[in-house]
Each structure stands twice: as structure tokens, then as C-alpha cells.
Amino acid sequence: MLKLVLETTLPETLIALYNTETDELWEQRDAQPRASERLHSHIDTLLQHANATLSDVGHIVVTCGPGSFTGIRVGLAVAQAMDLAESTPSTTLTTLQALALSHPSDNNTTVVMDSLGQEVFVQTFDKNNNPLDEAQCLLQEEAMKYLADKTNFIGNGLKKLDIPTTKHLVNARTLAQLSDTSQELRPFYLKPLNYRKMTPAA
Predict the structure, then answer these.
(1) Which of 14, 24, 72, 91 could potentially form a cystine with 7 if both were Cys, beta carbons 3.0 to 4.6 Å apart?
(2) What is the rounded average pLDDT of the residues 27-51?
């Protein structure tokens, strides 16, 4: 069976195909602006490499946020479209969970994600990837207080806090090897959409 992995909520988009029978993995990362607009093209390219079609995809793993509002919507929309067209089931997980899973540790892991605004998203998981608290959206000063008693950090939000890290990407194979559970495709937002009021032209 082929599994499709979609991570479109982080600045570097990840699309991957995994063959559960041969353990082959094809992946495409895109860190260029407006990467979500090229999602369908990347999927087509990976299907060509795997000599497969969308009908051969038996399961989807998709992150549901938090992160880029556009990225969240695009990733879930693709999964919903495949469910309607091919009845392809999906496993969803938050981007915070995906990052924690991708960087296993014998200790608790605190994920710090850049909100693409003034805040960061934070959540701490135990060594078995069980959440120890609720995901939060914190200003930088609040985030530093939250991290005061934590020791193991990952995520691209650490750069905003001047904490060095190289652990800020999700692992395609790790996500592809999650158990095949079918879940509702629902976005996970931690802060409201910001709308700008437009002044009518005279």
C-alpha cells in the first residue's frame, strides 16, 4: 500500500509517498514562498517516481496545525478531496505532535513553533509522545517563562527566542509509519484569523 504524507503548516512543506510493502520512501521538501500552491505538482511528481496514481494511495497522514493558515487549509483540502474521490482514509495529528514524534527522546520534549507573528506555539510531550499540557500561543516573554523549567527543546520557534537548534523539521518516514486510524479532518488553530478592513475606493 502507498501512504501519502502531507505537512503543509510549516515554512518548509513536506510531501512524501511511502510504500508499506517495500519500505521505499519518496519525499519532496519545498521551502520557497507560496509552497502550498505547488502541492498538487509535487504530489504528481512523487506519483511518477513511484509509478503510481492517486488510486494507489491507500492512506493519508496529514498535519492539521497550528501553523500557516493557508497551509493548514490546503493540506486538509487535499485529504478531503481524496476522501470524496477515492474514499481514502486519513490520519491527522497536530504539527506539534508531528515534530515531537520526529525527534524522539528519553526525556520530555518541548516543541516551540514560530507562529509567523509575534508569538510562538508551545507544548510539552513525554517520551511516549503523550501531551503533558495543552498547546498554547505565547508571546516571547511568556514563552521564556514557560521554558524556564524545561530542558529539551525542538522547533523553529526557538530561533525567535535566540535558542539554537537544528531540530525543526518533521520526519517523513516516522509519520508514514503511524498506525492507520481514520480520523475527522478538522483544522487546529491556536489564534484567530486576522482580517484587515478595506476602505472602499472613492
Answers:
(1) 14
(2) 94
User: Rounded to whole angstroms, how far apart are CA atoms 166 and 149?
Assistant: 21
Going 50 to 39 to 30 to 59, the CA torsion angle's sign is negative
Q: Is pLDDT above 50 for 196?
A: no
Calculate mean pLDDT across residues 141-159: 96
Beta-bridged to residue 25, according to DSSP, are 18
Query: Alpha helices of the chain — where are they, by DSSP H?
Result: 39-49, 69-86, 95-102, 140-147, 172-176
29-34 LR contacts (CB < 8 Å, sep 24+): 29/169
DSSP letters along 26-65, please? EEEEE-STTGGGGHHHHHHHHHHHTT--GGGEEEEEEE--
Q: Domains in the chain, please, with CATH?
A: 2-95+169-176 (3.30.420.40), 105-161 (3.30.420.200)
